[in-house]
Amino acid sequence: MASQTQPRPPAVIRQRLTSWFHRRVANPVMRPLSRYIPGQAVLETTGRRTGLPRRTPVGGRVVGGSFWLVADHGLRSHYVRNIQASPRVRLCIGARWHDGTAHLLPDDDPRARLRQLPRLNSLMVRLLGTDLLTVRVDLSDHP
After folding, report:
1. N or C terminus of the chain: which is more exposed, having fewer CB within 10 Å?
2. Rounded to an integer, what distance in angstroms lies between the CA atom of residue 130 and that of residue 110?
3. Once rounded to an integer, what is the mean pLDDT over residues 37-51?
């Protein structure tokens, strides 16, 4: 009996392609450059399976004592899953590392939030994102 495969929905294909692009192209390039680009930071989470530090370049903005960002693939993003498992994170803004606690905010409007964040990053998140989710990192050592 021949098995039939179901076609994948376009959102799944889009998410897989953009995940591959981020993992293989954008993240390796942006990780070292993030300290020099305004609105960019490196988020360090603890791997939920390995316990190892995982660094992901993210775009966002500090408002008060919190760094705000929008995850483009929501709960499918590995760094978001790592936050679910362990919300204690570190964030490198410029050349300085900050300790913080990350909060996933599913009730926040991510599209409205993107209008308050750096334009270029927000544009890329809107274009490539499949399941937007707002994340707030409360920085413990930020004025």
Report:
1. N
2. 12
3. 94
Domains along the chain? Answer: 10-139 (2.30.110.10)
Let me know if 126 is exposed, middle or buried by CB neighbors in 10 A (0-12, 13-18, 19+): middle
DSSP, res 72: T
Q: Compute the distance between CA of residue 78 and CA of residue 58 in angstroms, rounded to an integer.
A: 13
CA dihedral sign, ordered 126, 56, 50, 102: negative
Are 83 and 101 in contact by the 8 Å Cβ rule? The answer is no
In the numeric block, the tokens 């709960």 are attached to 75
Average pLDDT over the chain, rounded to whole?
Answer: 87
Mean pLDDT across 6-14: 70
| Angle in degrees, CA 103, 21, 39, rounded to 5 | 45
Taking a C-beta distance cutoff of 8 angstroms, is the pair 72, 60 a contact?
A: no
Whether 110 and 140 have beta carbons less than 8 Å apart is answered as: no
Higher pLDDT, 143 or 9: 9
